[in-house]
From TrEMBL:
<dbReference type="Pfam" id="PF01266">
    <property type="entry name" value="DAO"/>
</dbReference>
<protein>
    <submittedName>
        <fullName>FAD-binding oxidoreductase</fullName>
    </submittedName>
</protein>
<keyword id="KW-0560">Oxidoreductase</keyword>
<feature type="domain" description="FAD dependent oxidoreductase">
    <location>
        <begin position="38"/>
        <end position="386"/>
    </location>
</feature>
<dbReference type="InterPro" id="IPR036188">
    <property type="entry name" value="FAD/NAD-bd_sf"/>
</dbReference>
<dbReference type="InterPro" id="IPR006076">
    <property type="entry name" value="FAD-dep_OxRdtase"/>
</dbReference>
Length: 432
């Protein structure tokens, strides 16, 4: 079964609040026969679109192919949070990699956030970019650790944009009694993820990139030949930017990148009740292993993400799945209707750090952003564009990170991951 078609109709965005309210782009024509290019990009999400934009601006003949529509996958369905740092905290990176590489990864993550805001400003992308992410802790111990981490970032990394929050201060912002405190990151931000993706596509096309939608890549042959159901692209370099949809295109990378499904809902407009849910226009992510994340839409809906599954199929009733964690966080919304519900496939690695690799000569790959992809996937696109043109400095910083395959092979890794996630979900429930 192909994940590209397991849960979605070909060429149709999912029934999300984003897809309903974001002005669409006219379709890009499918590939028609064979053609030559300097660089071929497989995948029309943040990574591929960012790479296409940077390569086109450098004067390269670049062709991007997407099986569905640009922004169709996780890039157009996620919670829209542009976080600081890497997916792992800096103290964990220091233990894993040493101080030097950890510091370099911190600065790259800061470059990623800056890159997102700069691209939005430079290309006039209307995607409701707003500052502020609250990281809400579920335990008193977690709150103490979050405050200590804020102090570490201030003293060791000169990052002073984390505002520690007591339980009372947090609940003055987030109307959820389950949280015990946290931090407010004023360096983080949130946006409409689909609008951002479409803006990148528009900018890449204007810069001279060629984009083909409804073009399914079947394989990549030796010599950087991309074979699709619509023809072939003979290129000097290939960039694989398919993330959770990589599948059999590159099995060495796919063994290290696990696709998982995550789900979101949108409530009906909350009107005056919106302020009792979120008193500030900030996004929120909590400390549960299976993270709950949410923010308000411009029209006063709660956009809430929660719940995961492992395998190909989405559940039949996404609303029922996500309503459970939503009501645990906001029990006062039990009478509120859920007007939209959708799922999406992202990809994680065992380290929770991106997997950048050169699986074959002339082929570059980036995937596995582990829920931290709005900023990091955008940066990865620039890094891949640089590497494809001969500058592999930043690429090698990521490529040197140990990237282990998931245990169990193709048949058993999803069930093994599901068992592990079930254990962590039990820990969440127990408050451990």
């Amino acid at each position: 079964m192909n994940l590209l078609f397991a849960n979605d109709r070909r060429g149709t965005y999912p029934p999300s609040w984003y897809a309903e309210t974001t002005p669409p782009l006219p379709p890009f024509a499918p590939l028609d026969g064979d053609r030559r290019a300097d660089i071929c990009i497989v995948g029309g999400g943040y990574t591929g679109l960012s790479a296409a934009l940077h390569l086109a601006e450098a004067g390269r003949d670049v062709v991007l192919v997407e099986a569905h529509r640009v922004g169709f996958g996780a890039s157009g369905r996620n919670g829209g949070q542009v976080g600081s740092g890497q997916r792992l905290h800096q103290d964990a990176l220091e233990r894993m990699l040493g101080d030097g590489p950890a510091t370099r990864l911190w600065h790259l993550a800061e470059d990623a956030r800056t890159l997102v805001s700069d691209l939005i400003a430079r290309h006039d992308i209307a995607c409701d970019l707003r500052p502020g992410i609250v990281y809400a802790e579920c335990t008193a111990r977690g709150t103490r650790e979050a405050h200590a981490y804020a102090e570490k970032l201030r003293s060791d990394y000169d990052y002073d944009l984390l505002e520690p929050l007591t339980r009372g201060e947090l609940q003055a912002i987030v109307g959820a009694p389950c949280y015990r405190g946290g931090v407010l990151d004023w360096g983080g931000s949130h946006l409409n993820p689909l609008a951002y993706a479409l803006g990148l596509a528009r900018a890449a096309e204007r810069a001279g990139a060629t984009i083909h939608e409804a073009t399914l890549v079947e394989r990549v042959d030796a010599g950087a030949v991309v074979v699709t159901d619509r023809g072939r692209i003979i290129a000097d370099r290939v960039i694989l930017a398919a993330n959770g949809y990589l599948g059999g295109l590159e099995r060495h990378v796919a063994a290290r990148v696990m696709p998982i499904n995550n789900y979101m809902v949108a409530t009906e407009p909350l009107g005056e009740r919106a302020a009792s849910v979120l008193a500030r226009d900030v996004a929120v992510a909590d400390s549960r292993f299976v993270v709950n994340y949410f923010r308000l839409s411009p029209d006063g809906r709660l956009l809430f993400g929660g719940g995961e599954s492992y395998g190909y199929r989405f559940p039949e009733d996404i609303r029922a799945l996500v309503r459970k964690p939503l009501l645990k966080v906001f029990p006062q919304l039990s009478d509120v209707a859920l007007t939209h519900a959708w799922g999406g496939t992202l990809a994680i690695t065992r380290s929770r750090l991106p997997c950048l690799a050169t699986p074959a000569p002339g082929i570059f790959s980036a995937s596995g952003f582990s829920g931290h992809g709005v900023a990091m996937a955008t940066l990865a696109g620039r890094v891949l564009a640089e590497a494809a043109q001969g500058d592999s400095t930043d690429f090698e910083t990521f490529a040197r990170i140990p990237s282990r395959p998931f245990p169990g092979g193709g048949a058993f890794r999803a069930p093994l991951l599901a068992l592990a996630m079930a254990w962590y979900a039990l820990r969440d429930t127990a408050g451990i």
